[in-house]
Design a protein that fits this description.
The structure holds 2 protein chains of 2 kinds.
Chain A: H1 2-8, H2 11-20, E1 25-26, H3 27-31, H4 38-50, E2 54-59, E3 62-67, H5 70-75, H6 77-99
Antiparallel strand pairs in A: 1-3, 2-3
Helix pairs in contact in A: 1-4
Chain B: E1 6-15, H1 20-28, E2 42-45, E3 52-59, E4 62-74, E5 78-83, E6 93-102, E7 105-116, H2 125-141
Antiparallel strand pairs in B: 1-7, 2-3, 3-4, 4-5, 5-6, 6-7
Classes of the chains: A alpha+beta, B alpha+beta.
Chain lengths: 103, 142
């Protein structure tokens, strides 16, 4: 999970991920909006690949990038888990008293 | 040390036909199926202020150790403790459960504060939400 956090901490990398939510794209197309060299964008892409957020596919001479959604889901998971955990605990507390006979 | 963004969770329940003391007693009882510790596979608890607890919660086949310090106990009113685990990234979050008399029963409010918002370092909140929203939209389409 830490690699994911570090990967998305950078605004350029978040913008790359945002572009890829539209669908797979060539590296050159992903790099186009940025005021930096292709080599500079490629470094960011490598960070995203190492974090498992992006995968590279090769079709002939073309390299395309695709989004991997699983690590981003993992990041949001613990907050949701605790919300569910406490909800279930209170559900059982409520159920205990609902089953209890009225005095 | 970098500041970590945190979020707060809250759940409430209205328990009819039970006094705050009755609900409090169930909540802190380590052996009660309606209590805080019911889903744990193991509980070691010293139920007093400055007492410690260790508990193991299982989720999807993986066991997660949780530790904490009891910070406040007011019978029939408040149970408060810290909550530390992998899910809190090892940081102390705080769980405060209050019990108030209301409408002939008990109103229970549980607040879990200081839960790391799953960010390390400072993320631009709008950018992060935008990416997640975009991701959600693209996943719904696929």
């Amino acid at each position: 999970m830490d690699a994911t956090f570090l990967a998305i901490a950078d605004p350029t990398r978040r913008a790359i991920l945002d572009r890829l939510t539209l669908g797979p794209a060539r590296v050159t197309d992903v790099a186009a909006p940025f005021a930096m060299s292709l080599a500079g964008v490629s470094k960011h892409v490598k960070v995203l690949e190492r974090a498992g957020l992006v995968r590279r596919a090769r079709k002939g001479r073309e390299h395309t990038l695709e989004l991997e959604a699983a690590p981003l889901r993992e990041v949001a998971r613990w907050t949701a888990r605790y919300q569910q955990f406490w909800t279930e605990r209170l559900d059982r507390l409520e159920a205990h008293f609902a089953q209890r006979k009225k005095p | 040390m970098k500041m970590i963004k945190t979020t707060d969770l809250e759940c409430t329940r209205q328990i009819p036909n039970a006094t705050p003391q009755e609900v409090y007693d169930v909540w802190i009882d380590p052996g009660h199926p309606g209590g805080l510790w019911a889903s744990a596979t193991k509980v070691i608890l010293t139920a007093k202020v400055d007492g410690l607890f260790y508990t193991v919660l299982e989720h999807e086949g993986t066991k997660y150790a949780h530790y904490g310090l009891i910070t406040q106990l007011e019978p029939g009113k408040v149970v408060q403790h810290t909550w530390v685990s992998q899910g809190t990234r090892g940081l102390e979050s705080l769980v405060t459960t209050t019990f108030e008399p209301r409408d002939g029963g008990t109103f229970v409010r549980l607040r879990h504060t200081g839960v790391p918002d799953d960010e390390e370092g400072r993320l631009h909140v709008m950018g992060w939400n935008f990416v997640l929203d975009s991701l959600a939209k693209s996943l719904r389409k696929s």
